Amino acid sequence: MRRRGEFLAVRGGPGFVDGPLAATWRPREGAETGRILARVGITVSSKVGGAVVRNRVKRKLREAIRHEIAGLPAVDLVLVARASAVLAEVTDFRAFLRAARDRIAGGSR
Question: How far is CA 5 from CA 23, 27, 31, 40, in A?
Fold first, then answer.
């Protein structure tokens, strides 16, 4: 996801906060066909750190997403990095995405 409208469409949906990330999602249209994959948007505000720090967090997040995207249900997922994301590693982000997968599939908030 790259456009502001796509991010805003997810706002107000179910979500949760756990450790270094906050997640919000909504089901993708056409997901019942089974061929639709998840889309993930990343937000890292300047509160997390300077440009170098924010870009490092985004690179780690993208790497984790690359490994875990196939297991995610067909949703639009927005991930918001919190200040503690600076200290997190790719394995921490992968664990978060697996937990997100379970929460999304379970329908819990």
Answer: 17, 16, 20, 14
Each residue's pLDDT tens digit, 41-96: 999 999 999 999 999 999 999 999 999 999 999 999 999 999 999 999 999 999 99
Tokens describing residue 64: 């984790």
Closest Cα to residue 24, out of 80, 94, 85? 80
- Beta-carbon count within 10 A of 85 CB: 26
What domains does the chain contain, in order, with CATH numbers? 4-106 (3.30.230.10)
Whole-angstrom distance, CA of residue 45 vs CA of residue 103? 25
CA torsion sign for 78, 82, 85, 86 is positive
Please indicate, yes or no, whether the overall pTM of this predicted structure exceeds 0.85.
yes
